[in-house]
């Protein structure tokens, strides 16, 4: 299985913390979430696009702290 330091697992745990996962409504919402390592097969052959409105320099206010998920998981022990 995947280790808990994999980026997909870190994202899954983060979203789980935002949901009421102990209720039926939150549990079913969590079941609908799928997180992948890399780009999943139907989309890996598609052309990549940049969405300007989602760029970090436009979205985050100056001086805000941020962290890349891949770097975070590598620092806590993910080996890839």
Keywords:
80 residues, mainly alpha, Ribosomal_uL13_sf, Ribosomal_uL13, ribosomal protein, structural constituent of ribosome, Ribosomal_uL13_bac-type
Give a quick precis of the structure.
This protein has 80 residues and is an all-alpha fold.
Residue-averaged pLDDT, rounded? 91
How many individual β-strands?
0
Strand-residue fraction?
under 5%
Structural class: mainly alpha
Order of helices and strands: HHHH
Backbone CA Rg = 15 Å
Unreliable stretches, pLDDT < 50, 5 or more residues?
none
Give the termini distance in whole angstroms.
15 Å
Number of helices: 4
Q: Give the helix proportion (percent range).
A: 25-40%
Q: Biggest sheet, in brief?
A: none
Give the overall form: globular
Structural summary, described in words:
This protein has a domain at 1-39 and 68-80. Helix content is 39%, strand content 0%. It is built from four helices and no strands. It has helices at residues 7-18, 24-31, 56-59, 69-75. The protein is globular and about 35 Å long. The two termini are 15 Å apart. The mean pLDDT is 91.
